[in-house]
Design a protein that fits this description.
Number of helices: 22
CATH architecture of the largest domain: 3-Layer(aba) Sandwich
Structural class: alpha/beta
Number of domains: 4
Radius of gyration: 27 Å
CATH superfamily of the largest domain: P-loop containing nucleotide triphosphate hydrolases
CATH topology of the largest domain: Rossmann fold
Largest sheet: 7 strands, parallel
Bound molecules: adenosine monophosphate
Mean pLDDT: 84
Distance between the termini: 57 Å
Strand order of the largest sheet: 3-4-2-5-6-1-7
């Protein structure tokens, strides 16, 4: 583990109100990207950071922004502007800034396409400290004169590579050029293609470079354990974990969560599912922790739900499984966690639950550890039923071989006067099955695939804007045309969206809606054609169903857009 990981939020020099907010949220220590970035940002430096979703990058820039808010005599004009690629991310970042800045009374306004502009105008007029905007909508507001930029002291470009891929390069240049020259500028991107470097050279002033260490864990350093990952939307995680545990049947497992709250909630949920789960986090006194460890060591608890901080230095002999309820924020943390199983030649299993957008972290971990992580399907209801039936069968078989069953003979003999022997057996099996938990858990968990690793050489591919801003395909379609580059012909399916230029739809709206609501990112989406009345969007064949069903639940420019496969 790097030293930066041992630092506390107080060490980073954050004000009391922010430290209180972080404690309330159950954060125990800064993630590596936070420990590295926050001191530089507090010192006023520009920063170029390489970090993907799941590393804690949002707090890396949100906390320094909030640190600068004046407590009194506040102006009504915004002092910070955060630019993000999608509506979804705008809402997410805005919630995060609001959470961290609650005690400071921070006024946060997200502005994005798809929401009536009048509501945003009202919010901006009421006074605002931090604006989180998608580039297209920010430009609209700047043109109308409704987003004042004179007081902006810091601009953040979040997921800059996604924004460039969505064709927002010109918008970003225009916005940055319209903000005060002496502003602080922060650019976060999951990848660093040359276009991002160029952008950084143009708009950042002597930036600090921060990236979460890639090569800190030597390949092969991780112990040889069976490594699995499951892709699960956040809302389905507790149910998915329950199912995975049912199928894996660990003797003892440690489940790592990011925050104290998550630890407490998950412990409760798993106890509700019939597990003997114990919580362990930094908010507990030493005595309480010792009691918990005692119960785990004697086997009276089978699951230990813990934060990294609380579990540091723990060594539990009988552990068979390590579960990452969230993808760890850096590969070193992953290696450290899974090092608790698979020791001394014993078998170990490491399970990681990843949200669809966290694919990069999982890929990075596999690369750093030099070991594959198999992406498995969450057991379905049918898998679970089969597994439970198998368990009932095994229990009955054991009982038939070992138990003294003679004292139940009278019951069976009495019943045989009225019923067939097989029927009696069936009723007894049913009771045994139900007593062991039966078939609960009837909600199906949607199947989502983790995006496959893209081929190398992406820098080259992402050079030109992918979707023309006018909605036309890029002009250069010669040779390795862009369709062939990202989506090979056989893989791409065109979807028809019943919305077009008449509704002022732009490529960014379509890409933003799809990237925001599905596991796809801007890069997975191919050519887009927008006509007066409808639009055609290329998506990977494997994701067609996911896109159609997600788009049925959403709106673009306030309109229902239910897409369908293009008909010829
Ligand atoms: P991000 O990479 O910014 O999308 O953050 C990923 C998740 O980690 C979010 O759910 C945050 O609430 C959470 N998070 C961020 N920083 C910390 C921290 N220091 N400790 C625990 N959780 C965190």
């Amino acid at each position: 583990m790097s030293n930066t990981n041992e630092r506390t939020f107080a060490d980073l020099g954050l004000r009391r109100e922010l430290l209180d907010a972080l404690t309330t949220l159950g954060y125990e220590e800064p993630t590596p990207i936070q420990a590295e970035s926050i001191p530089h940002l507090l010192a006023g430096r520009d920063l170029l950071g390489q970090a993907a979703t799941g590393t804690g990058k949002t707090a890396s820039f949100a906390l320094p922004i909030l640190e600068r808010l004046r407590s009194d005599g506040r102006e009504d004009e915004p002092t910070a502007l955060i630019l993000v690629p999608t509506r979804e991310l705008a809402m997410q970042v805005s919630e995060a800034v609001h959470k961290y800045g609650r005690e400071l009374g921070a006024r946060v306004v997200p502005i994005y396409g798809g929401q009536p502009i009048s509501r945003q105008l009202q919010a901006l007029r009421r006074g605002v400290d931090v604006v989180i905007a998608t580039p297209g909508r920010a430009v609209d507001h700047i043109r109308r004169g409704t987003l004042p930029l004179e007081s902006i002291g810091i601009v953040v470009l979040d997921e800059a590579d996604e924004m460039l891929d969505m064709g927002f390069a010109e918008d970003l240049d225009a916005i940055l050029d319209a903000t005060p020259a002496q502003r602080q500028t922060v650019l976060f991107s999951a990848t660093m293609p040359s276009r991002i470097e160029k952008m950084a050279r143009r708009h950042l002033d002597d930036p600090v470079n921060v990236r979460i260490a890639r090569e800190t864990a030597e390949p092969g350093e991780a112990p040889k354990v069976r490594q699995l990952a499951y892709v699960v939307p956040r809302s389905h995680k507790p149910a998915a974990l329950g199912r995975i545990l049912d199928v894996e049947a660990p003797t003892a497992a440690i489940v790592f969560c990011r925050t104290r709250h998550e630890v407490d909630q998950l412990t409760e949920t798993l106890n509700g599912r019939g597990y003997r789960a114990e919580a362990l986090h930094g908010g507990m006194g030493q005595e309480a922790r010792d009691r918990v460890m005692g119960r785990v060591r004697t086997g009276s608890a089978e699951l230990l739900i813990a934060t990294d901080v609380a579990a540091r230095g723990l060594d539990i002999d009988q552990l068979t499984h390590v579960v990452n309820y969230d993808v760890p924020s850096a590969p070193e943390a992953y290696v450290h966690r899974i090092g608790r199983v698979g020791r001394a030649g014993r078998e170990g299993v490491a399970i990681t639950l990843a949200e669809p957008r966290e694919h990069r972290l999982v890929e990075n971990i596999a690369r750093v550890t030099g070991q594959p992580i198999a992406v498995e399907k969450v057991p379905t209801i049918a898998d679970l039923r089969n597994r439970r039936m198998e368990l009932t069968l095994a229990t009955l078989r054991e009982s038939l071989l070992d138990d003294d069953l003679d004292r139940y003979r009278t019951i069976v003999e009495t019943l045989t006067d009225e019923f067939d022997l097989v029927e009696i057996a069936l009723a007894a099996v049913k009771l045994a099955h139900e007593a062991a938990g039966g078939d609960q858990d009837e909600t199906e968990i949607p199947e989502i695939s983790l995006r496959p690793r893209r081929a190398e050489g992406r820098d080259e591919r992402s050079k030109g804007a992918k979707h023309g801003k006018d909605g036309k395909r890029p002009k250069d379609r010669s040779g390795k045309g862009e369709k062939g580059e990202r989506l090979s012909k056989g893989d791409a399916v065109r979807l028809y969206f019943p919305i077009g230029r008449a509704a002022r739809v732009r490529p960014g709206d379509l890409v933003g809606a799809i990237a925001g609501e599905t596991s796809l990112s801007g890069r997975d989406i191919g050519a887009i054609e927008i006509t007066e009345k409808f639009s055609l969007v290329e998506v990977p064949a494997r994701s067609v169903d996911e896109v159609i069903s997600a788009m049925k639940r959403t709106t673009i420019k306030g309109k229902k857009v239910a897409p369908r496969r293009e008909r010829f």
